[in-house]
């Protein structure tokens, strides 16, 4: 993994992610869990501006309609957004990878049937499934939440991961099945290697780089679904709902995560454009960072070929031994066949 740090794309994306993720914890540790609030700006005793305040040196992203600093809200909510997206992708891969290898090796005859059921899911927006499953968890009832913010985030991560496990499993299963038909895999099977050994010793090492790329793609897809859920007023960690019929506030985010900031301020796009644009730009930066890390990792892997060095004690890997044994058996069978043909001719 050391060679990926020589790729500028990977380093660029890593710096952006580290800035938001580490900076979020540091910002909360220094400034506290609540953003500063400024309702009015006075100059020489005269009222200059009232909330929402436009961007300035004091407030780089301006303030919302309640006077809260948008930059502080974005930094406080960065950790929830990024950790939730990475968590959804991680849980999804932990379930889909072993299931995909099983589909590609043990269930080869059933693979086409499974794909016929899974393929239609590509055409159904995952936002719809996510909204239907997460609404009872994230929408605040009249009596208030009975769970904490992190508990709701964990439930959301697990449910969003399960939704797309069939699609990712089918994708990995198709890739594993293509490798399973290669000649060196057939040689290992001929020599008596079990499917479990083939998965651990051959398929997983060959697909390791591709699995990293798929993980990055799942992170990007999760961030996009978060923005869609934000527009539907369903926020990460829960939606704070006011049931006051006279003076009720609109739904707002509890954890200041970016989907909530974007969804709750989207209606101000024309009058106060910096409110929805600030979280939208941060979403775009994180997606760009993940895409850059994938590109950098792909370039590093494709341009870095590891040549195994032979040790002084003459150590040879088991795969090479198996391959040589397979070749020797082929030669012996060919020699015996020729001897039988010559004998029959005589």
From TrEMBL:
The chain crosses the membrane at residues 9-30, 80-108, 120-138, 153-172, 211-236, 274-294. The keyword Transmembrane helix applies. It is found in: Cell membrane; Membrane. SUPFAM superfamilies: MetI-like (SSF161098). Residues 78-294 form the ABC transmembrane type-1 domain. InterPro entries: MetI-like, MetI-like_sf. Keywords: Membrane, Transmembrane, Transmembrane helix, Transport. It is a multi-pass membrane protein. Its main location: membrane. Signal peptide: none annotated. Gene3D superfamilies: MetI-like. Belongs to the binding-protein-dependent transport system permease family. This is ABC transporter permease subunit.
